[in-house]
Design goal:
Layout lengths: L1 E5 L2 E6 L15 E7 L6 E8 L4 E9 L6 E9 L5 E6 L5 E7 L2 E4 L16 E4 L2 E6 L4 H7 L9 H20 L19 H18 L11
Antiparallel strand pairs: 1-2, 2-11, 3-4, 3-10, 4-5, 5-6, 6-7, 7-8, 8-9, 9-10
């Protein structure tokens, strides 16, 4: 399934589905989301990010409580011959187990068994859409390769924050009828865009500023 939002570039969201049954063939790397059961709150909003480097990040938010988001990361270990992964957090002895299916992961108990009962489905986290940025401007790729910028200069959190500001200003000018801002950008502040996506979008805004000699955000450096 592909969703396309057109500007001078495309925000393409896609999730691939096929029949697989092993670590090597299963499309397992990505972001998984859901709300897991909680004994003393409304639920635990959970995001698990798995990378092809066998690393993970878990983000948890206890709904109905004032506590901030809890986040940790570590290594992913595949159980030999099984579609089961072990998450081992940095600096901790505890382990978490997940069954890896097509388009979802399911949290298991300490014995690596599925948690049966009425709440079984709530222990499944579904794979989120992945996003790709396609720029329809022949000068952008050359500019990016020769700009002197590097993705390693920025954190994904910084890129996300800057993109939110850029998008807000872009959309304001689009609504006012400025023809340089060809269409409205639908950038979801609550979506987990990957760093490559955020970096390319951020750099497009930089490119647009230089090309058109216009500042979208005052005080953000050279054209």
């Amino acid at each position: 399934m592909k969703k396309i939002l057109t500007l001078i570039f495309v925000l393409a969201a896609f999730t691939a589905f096929a029949q697989h049954n092993s670590q090597n063939s299963l499309d397992w790397a990505g972001t998984y989301k859901g709300v897991m059961p909680c004994a003393d709150c409304e639920g635990i909003r959970t995001t698990v990010i798995l990378t092809e480097k066998n690393e993970f990040t878990v983000k948890m938010q206890y709904l109905g409580k004032k506590a901030k988001e809890y986040k940790y990361s570590g290594k992913v270990i595949w159980n030999s011959g099984e579609n089961i992964i072990t998450l081992i957090a940095k600096g901790e002895d505890s382990k978490e187990y997940y069954f890896v299916g097509e388009g979802y992961i399911q949290k298991l108990d300490a014995d690596k068994k599925k948690i049966d009962g009425d709440l079984e489905e709530m222990f499944k986290l579904k794979k989120a859409d992945e996003y790709e940025l396609l720029v329809f401007d022949s000068g952008f790729d050359f500019w990016l390769s020769s700009s002197g910028y590097s993705i390693n200069q920025y954190s994904n959190e910084y890129l996300r924050s800057m993109n939110m500001s850029y998008v807000q200003e872009w959309n304001r000018r689009n609504i006012q009828g400025d023809r340089r801002f060809e269409s409205y950008i639908d950038y979801d502040a609550f979506e987990d865009y990957n760093k490559d996506f955020n970096y390319k979008l951020f750099m497009y805004f930089k490119y647009f500023e230089q090309k058109n000699r216009v500042k979208l955000i005052p005080g953000t450096g050279r054209f």
